[in-house]
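I'll show a record.
***
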Amino acid sequence: CAIAGVWNCVTIDPLNIAAGVWMVLNAFVLFLCEAPFCCQFIEFANAVSAKVDKLRYWQKAVFYCGMAIFPVFLRFSITTLFGNAIAFASGVLYGLASLGKKGDAVSYARLQNRKPADEEKQSGTIRSEAAEQ
């Protein structure tokens, strides 16, 4: 993202320069949030990383995808599209992580094969009918 942002700044078009600067800032924020050990020379890096770690996955997904989409809307080009693809993909992965784990195939098959009588046994309706007789 940073390399594509710097490449995007090599122009005289102000929208390209703005998109490039935003992409470089995106790269810096991603390094700060995801890899604070790369930014040990910055005093507040650990504090920012600790705050970001407290966020839920869906909040990180919205934040990362929003940061990645803005330069593409600012100036649509191949450089901005491919430069922000990895930042957007990390947001998508956080979004998928917020959905939770996939269900177990064995337990899903057991749920599908359960008979209505089994459900009645679990709810206690058969016992109450037997008590009435």
